[in-house]
Structures are given as C-alpha cells and as structure tokens.
Amino acid sequence: MADERPNMPIPEETLNLLLERLEAVERHVADGRGLLEDSRRYFQELRQKELELLQKDLEIERLKRDLYYQKKLCEKEMEARSNALEEKCRFLEKDLEARITRERELFERRLAAEQGLWAERLAGEQEECARRLADAKRSEGFWARLIRMLTWS
User: Fold this and answer.
1) C-alpha distances out from residue 119 to 30, 74, 127, 138, Å
2) In which element (H, E) is residue 7 found?
3) What keywords would UniProt list here (predicted)?
C-alpha cells in the first residue's frame, strides 16, 4: 500500500520542535530508567534489610529461649541450694542440740561432783565442830565440876 499522503517537506521549526520533544522523551525515558534502577537497588536493599531484620528477630527469639532456659536452670539451682541450706541448718540445729545436751550432762555431773566434794568438806567440818564442841563440853564439865566443888565447901 502506498502512502496516500503527499510528500511534503516538513518545516525546520517543526523538526526542531519534534527533536526537542524527542530529546525530552529520551531524557524522560533515561530518568525513568534511572528511577527504575534506583527502585531496583532500593528494593534489593529493602529485601536485604528485611532478611537482616528477620535474622535479628530469630536471634532475639533464640536469646529469649536461652534466657528462659537459663532462668529455669537458675531457679532450680537456687531451689536446690535453698534445700541444701535448709537441710544443713536442720543438721546443725540437731548437732547443736546434741552438743548442748552433752554439755548440760557434763555440767550436771561436774556440779554433782562439786556438790559431793563440798558436802564431804561440810560433813568433815561438822564432825570437827562436833568433836570440838564435845571436847569443849567435856572441858567445861571438868571446870564446872571443879568450880562446884570449890563453891560447895
């Protein structure tokens, strides 16, 4: 098919206008390509950041689980130590009670021995006093008899 339009020369002004428009379209396309490349780069960066964020979220979750596990271990250890300390306290209390009982018994034996010693000393001194008193009464009896004899005459 033949073009039915007549071949007319295009004025230079129209050509210049078309060239300007074509250059503007090329600049617009180039800008669009630049924006598209920027968009792709930003999209890649965004995906990379999302992956990093996801990895950090996973790391946070892992750390939370580890922390929970460590907390439970610590609680169990504290409970075990508490039980051990309570058991040790009960043992020490029983040991202390036994020591107090032994010391009390020892004290009571020593007290009884000391009381016996002083009771013997007291008995000895009472015997000595009774002997002296008997001697004094005998002596007094002699002197009293002598005085009576002297006064009777």
Assistant:
1) 127, 65, 12, 28
2) none
3) Coiled coil
For residue 6, give the H/E element and its range.
none
Which helix (DSSP H) or strand (DSSP E) does residue 23 occupy?
A: helix 12-152
Most confident option among 40-44, 130-134, 136-140: 40-44
Report the chain's C-alpha Rg in angstroms.
Answer: 63
| C-alpha to C-alpha distances, 121 to 116, 117, 128, nearest whole angstrom | 9, 6, 10
Token code pair at residue 102: 């032994």
Euclidean distance between CA atoms 56 and 58, whole angstroms: 5
Q: What is the pTM of this model?
A: 0.44
Distance CA(24)–CA(29), nearest Å, equals 8
- Note the pLDDT tens digit of each residue in 98-118: 999 999 999 999 999 999 999
